[in-house]
What we know:
Blueprint: H1 2-26, H2 39-50, E1 58-59, E2 62-63, H3 81-90, H4 102-117, E3 127-128, E4 134-135
Antiparallel strand pairs: 1-2, 3-4
Amino acid sequence: MMDTKKNILVIGLLITTFCFYNYLIYTSKENGEPIKLSKKALVGQKIWQDKNCWSCHQTYGLGGYLGPDLTNIYSNKNKGPNYIKAFLNSGVKSMPKFNFTEQEKEAIIAYLKTIDSTGYYPNYDAALKVNGWVELKYKNEK
């Protein structure tokens, strides 16, 4: 009988700790506001989703594995917007030729530019904080 009460007390304490921890994490304001996409970047995001680019490409390591990770393609000194536009024009190897209009290409480039502006991938300067969040190095921080 005493063991049952002890077990219930321990389980209750664990559930209370779990709920309190989640409250602290999900009500924390320290992570700031999410990045807001411009109207052009929103159009690019819609095209990205409609054409199912996630099935082959990754951003921040999430997505398919057939194509390269495109997180920082816009700021890559050997690539950039003209490089992106060239591949969107013609496709290559496994990438289909989508026949995008100039406006669609510009929108996709705006979307990739916004993704690029948010940080680095892979991010080797990450640190685990005591509260469970991972602290990353962002591009807009000095």
